[in-house]
């Protein structure tokens, strides 16, 4: 599960609750004080948040490749934001299925991360019907929260 440590985390946790016990799940996110050592009882791999300074995307790329080579996930699910771009692409490059869930806060306009990752996703889910206009191949799964 790849998500930001902010608002996208609650949506990611809602998804994970549906799969708990059935799969070996780990999180990829960036470090924030409220996370402590990780997210609940799940393994948590931290990468640099590149949002504040674009050259940090290079560090995020290297860290993401390292995490995905070590973990070798069969699938990666992301609820966004920009910190998840390279973890998702690295996992996809290594053969993982990639599922993207556009943020529930995106009711009438797409996110930058969603627009970028739409073409790479094996399954793209939106939470609001109006988003199908921007993502014609997406499936409206309804709101997570």
Short structural description:
This protein has one domain (2-140): Rossmann fold. It is built from four helices and seven strands.
Protein architecture, described:
The chain is an alpha/beta fold and about 140 residues long. It has one domain (about 1-140): Rossmann fold (3-Layer(aba) Sandwich), CATH 3.40.50. The protein contains 4 helices and 7 strands, in the order βαββαβαβαββ. The chain has helices at about 10-20, 55-70, 85-95, 110-115; strands at about 1-5, 25-30, 45, 75-80, 95-100, 125, 140. Strands 1-4-5-6-7 form a 5-stranded parallel beta sheet. Strands 2-3 form a two-stranded parallel ribbon. Helix 2 crosses helix 3. The chain is globular. The two termini are about 15 Å apart. The model has no long low-confidence stretch (mean pLDDT about 95).
In terms of per-residue confidence, which ranges show pLDDT below 50 for 5 or more consecutive residues? none
SSE order, as H and E? EHEEHEHEHEE
Strands of the biggest beta sheet: in what spatial order? 1-4-5-6-7
Most strands sheet: 5 strands, parallel
Outline, from the CA principal axes? globular
Q: Give the strand tally.
A: 7
Class computed from helices, strands and strand pairing: alpha/beta
Q: Work out the radius of gyration.
A: 14 Å
Number of domains: 1
Distance between the termini: 17 Å
Q: Based on the structure given, which CATH architecture is correct? A: 3-Layer(aba) Sandwich
């Amino acid at each position: 599960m790849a998500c930001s440590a902010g608002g996208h985390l609650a949506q990611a946790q809602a998804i994970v609750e549906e799969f708990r016990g059935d799969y070996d799940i780990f999180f990829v996110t960036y470090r924030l004080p409220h996370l402590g050592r990780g997210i609940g009882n799940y393994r948590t791999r931290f990468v640099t948040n590149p949002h504040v300074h674009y050259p940090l995307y290079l560090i995020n790329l290297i860290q993401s490749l390292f995490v995905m080579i070590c973990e070798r996930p069969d699938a990666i699910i992301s609820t966004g934001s920009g910190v998840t771009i390279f973890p998702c692409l690295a996992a996809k490059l290594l053969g993982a299925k990639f599922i993207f869930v556009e943020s529930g806060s995106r009711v009438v306009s797409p996110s930058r991360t969603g627009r970028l990752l739409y073409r790479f996703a094996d399954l793209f889910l939106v939470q609001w019907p109006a988003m199908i206009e921007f993502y014609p191949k997406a499936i409206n799964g309804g709101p997570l929260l």
